[in-house]
């Protein structure tokens, strides 16, 4: 059994990257080019911006639900169904955001507990 040190690990990484590049060139796909899927939108390249956009949308839903609830309490509107729908949308958005956060924390903990 061989021991793995940092230099051999970096050499293996370099070999894998070279093989990946060669395979992409052989397949006619230049290295780093995205593979187009018909009818699909290109994914956002920046995770931070995607997360920020999702949080902004959830915040907007919560603000809208708060405004609808306040309007109902003041008697400005009598449509309880619209108020409940906006509150439920905000709740579902918040729960989804919470689940994404939990998954990210779990992945972070898994990565940090991996031996180097």
UniProtKB/TrEMBL annotation:
Pfam (any one): FliE
Signal peptide: none
GO biological process, one term: bacterial-type flagellum-dependent cell motility
Alphabetized InterPro entries for the sequence: FliE
UniProt keyword list: Bacterial flagellum, Cell projection, Cilium, Flagellum
GO molecular function, one term: cytoskeletal motor activity
Gene Ontology CC entries for this record: bacterial-type flagellum basal body
Subcellular localization, as worded in the UniProt entry: Bacterial flagellum basal body
Main location: other
Superkingdom in the source lineage: Bacteria
NCBIfam families assigned: fliE (TIGR00205)
UniProt family annotation: Belongs to the FliE family.
Protein name: Flagellar hook-basal body complex protein FliE
């Amino acid at each position: 059994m061989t021991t793995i040190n940092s230099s051999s690990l970096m050499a293996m990484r370099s070999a894998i990257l070279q093989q990946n590049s060669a395979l992409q060139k052989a397949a006619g796909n230049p290295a780093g080019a995205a593979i187009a899927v018909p009818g699909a939108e290109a994914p956002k390249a920046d995770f931070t911006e995607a997360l920020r956009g999702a949080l902004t949308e959830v915040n907007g839903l919560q603000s809208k639900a708060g405004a609808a609830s306040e309007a109902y309490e003041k008697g400005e509107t009598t449509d309880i169904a619209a108020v409940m729908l906006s509150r439920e949308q905000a709740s579902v958005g918040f729960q989804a955001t919470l689940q994404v956060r939990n998954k990210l924390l779990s992945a972070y903990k898994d990565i940090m507990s991996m031996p180097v």
